[in-house]
Amino acid sequence: xxxxxxxxxxxxxxxxxxxxxxxxxxxxxxxxxxxxxxxxxxxxxxxxxxxxxxxxxxxxxxxxxxxxxxxxxxxxxxxxxxxxxxxxxxxxxxxxxxxxxxxx
Length: 104
Prior knowledge:
Elements lengths: L38 H15 L5 H15 L5 H12 L14
């Protein structure tokens, strides 16, 4: 199997390596630093998300509803399903909830 990163075609001293733009060549312009500040764009994005959520959005109520949905999802498991649930909790795939058992 061939290596993923084969050695470069030039020697260890860098002979034959491509030179960066502008390095010692008078006909090539020097590199110019280019930076973009996305702070204003991020503030605008956040404002748009909050506007889309609306004034009635209650994050704590959303979390309570999510917990209720998880309780319902894992309720009424038969013995085999409960074992699978317990195994998934034991290996960290699902978070431990309450007493560690799925809701009845």
